[in-house]
Amino acid sequence: MATVRFEEAQRWYPGADKPAVPGISLEIGDGEFMVLVGPSGCGKSTTLRMLAGLEEVNKGRIFIGDRDITNMPPKDRDIAMVFQNYALYPHMSVADNMAFALKMAKIPTDERNRRVNDAAKILGLTEYLDRKPKALSGGQRQRVAMGRAIVRQPQVFCMDEPLSNLDAKMRVQTRTDIAKLQADLGVTTVYVTHDQVEAMTMGDRVAVMKDGYLQQVDTPLGLYDRPVNLFVAGFIGSPAMNLLEAHAKDGQAQIGDYLVPVDPMASKKMEGDITVGVRPEAWRIVGNSQEGLPVKVTVVEDLGSDAFVYGTSGVEGTPNNIIIRVNGRDHVQKGETIHVTTDPANVHVFDTATGARLSD
Amino acid sequence: MSAAAWRVTRWILLIAFATYFLIPLAALLNFSTKDPLTRERSLAAWRALAQDPTMTEAITTSLLLAVLTVVGMVVLLVPTMIWVKLRVPRATRLVEFLCLLPLTIPALVILVGMKNVYAWVNYLVGDSPLTLAFVYVVLVLPYSYRAIDASLGSLDATTLAEAARSLGASWFTVITRVILPNIWPGVLGGAFIAVALVLGEFTIASLSHYNTLPVVIVFINKADAPESMAAALASLLFAALLLVLLSFLDRRRHHSGGK
Lengths: 360, 259
Description:
The complex is a heterodimer.
Chain A: E1 4-11, E2 21-28, E3 33-37, H1 44-52, E4 59-64, E5 67-68, E6 79-82, H2 94-104, H3 109-123, H4 138-150, E7 156-160, H5 168-185, E8 188-193, H6 196-202, E9 205-210, E10 213-218, H7 220-225, H8 230-235, E11 242-249, E12 252-255, E13 258-260, H9 264-269, E14 273-278, E15 284-286, E16 293-302, E17 306-312, E18 322-327, E19 337-341, E20 347-351
Parallel strand pairs in A: 3-8, 3-9, 6-7, 7-8
Antiparallel strand pairs in A: 1-2, 1-4, 4-5, 9-10, 11-12, 11-14, 12-13, 14-20, 15-19, 16-17, 16-19, 17-18
Chain B: H1 3-32, H2 44-51, H3 53-86, H4 92-104, H5 107-125, H6 132-153, H7 157-166, H8 171-200, H9 203-207, H10 213-223, H11 225-256
């Protein structure tokens, strides 16, 4: 088992006017499931491919355990990569696909068969071992790709959006399967995705990236509860956090006529233009008589257990869609105006200019 | 169109094409098995063909040339194309241009150009008709390139190679065990076109004064028409046999799979 350590690792594609990843430093613990997440072009795949040895590292170093693997060819790194399109060998049967790495490592046939059969059993692929990949469904192919990686018993799994080619239902199921498998095997895993739901549900820790830079590395709940900047606040969470433009006034945030109470730390630090973030579930509906931000309901999404109310407040600086999660039995109607408020502990305050978090 | 009408059309087309192709062959057979003077059936021409030392020598030469050309083409083109695809995709256009170039240059011009080169070739490896393999490798490049490029293009070679390398394969293993098996049909196709081209090439061989099969067929035609027709039919049948054999090879590979 092994830790993974990036030290200012840089990747600059030849001919590009700026580096794809200017210099990433990240430590991943032994057996940890680390998810790299971010919008497309943020450098998450490049970072993973540097670890796998598929991209050159222009500066900095990468370690697996104590081994400096910066300039090592991929075959010597003791990793196994799972690709978005699975990259199964079309001319080989499922069994041969899974045994490929073991053949490369010159493992004796008995041992090889045993490991392939064990992996096939774990993944429910036993009856498909003689088939060619093209005779399998998407989900089965994905499992073969996983199987090919796990029979190698590598020090690190590298997974590059392995669920993106699956349909929605299959993705949710496979998500759980992979997380469970990783926990059982205890192999250090670096997992790349653009889907923040995958990141939140699978990762022990999640690294949010943007424009080649790490924004925040934290546990899923840490990211959710204390996003360090506006980008992370807007990226993590579904539906997204409501971001309202406000003005600092006497230690409170003013949006139009409505004053939002904030925590003492933010209250001390903030001045000028600020952005106030409130998660959809942090709003409380209050009676018309009480002070609250008025919201005219435009759409109600009823999910049974709860409902998402979309509306506009008409107040300058508020987004077109304010999203409020309410109880599914609250019966908020389209067209009516509701008043909402929140608690200081649930308000995230950011500096509008720098995007930095001001709240505790 | 109804199923019955469709079947009838299919048969009509099949018969039309079969007639178109088979009548000349039947005529060849008819002519080559007739004594030109007595108009009686005779296998003299075929017997002469088998016994003519010039002919047997020419067949051997052409077959050897075909083998050498295919080997040369495969050794030169396959690794280059895979390497370009995986490592230097920027060079794709250049390689494609170079490979298609022989198609745009008339054989006579190539011949004139190669005279100087062949002075050196003959000085270094001796004056043998087999040296034609060098120029034939160049001539078959456009066709073989197309055939291999098609199968390479239908494969996500880059990702397959990355998967293999991350699983512990060297570049050599990637090419021989992962990419090559998947582009095998294209390589076979390219090889077959090369064989057909070499067996039929006349201009360069004739003007270089080498006795390859087409050159000898033309030569015999002037002396003994039935024998040359027999030779023509024999080479056609031979080429057809080769095609069936190669496609059979390909099919067997498909059935047995990677086992």
